[in-house]
Structures
1.
Amino acid sequence: MKLDDDTRNTLEGLEHVEDAPLTATHGRSASLLQYLMAAGYVENSGPGRMRISDVGRRALADHRGH
């Protein structure tokens, strides 16, 4: 599976942190954030916060060819 650059960059930014405020994804469109949630790549981790999900980690691994 190949991820588009915006999706990959956002997931990689979340990969090594427990969670992040939505404001940390500045420059990301609302439609991208909605897509990430709908695809299950990220999940809600509290008001205004998100984290990468297991599905997102697997998508990154698949993208990298692991």
2.
Amino acid sequence: MDVDLPEILLAVHVLVGMVFVGLGIQNFVGGRQVGLVLNGLLGLLIIGMGVGIQQLLD
């Protein structure tokens, strides 16, 4: 089985980043708009790091 490390790292970063975006949406539904902004930005930062790592390893 051929393991593609950059693709796996990207998938893990996207998964974790989407969890933070989901938490931000839950905060927004609960009436905390700052939670949406902070968790959303943190999620996007994690996804961006995954993309950057993938580009470095390719």
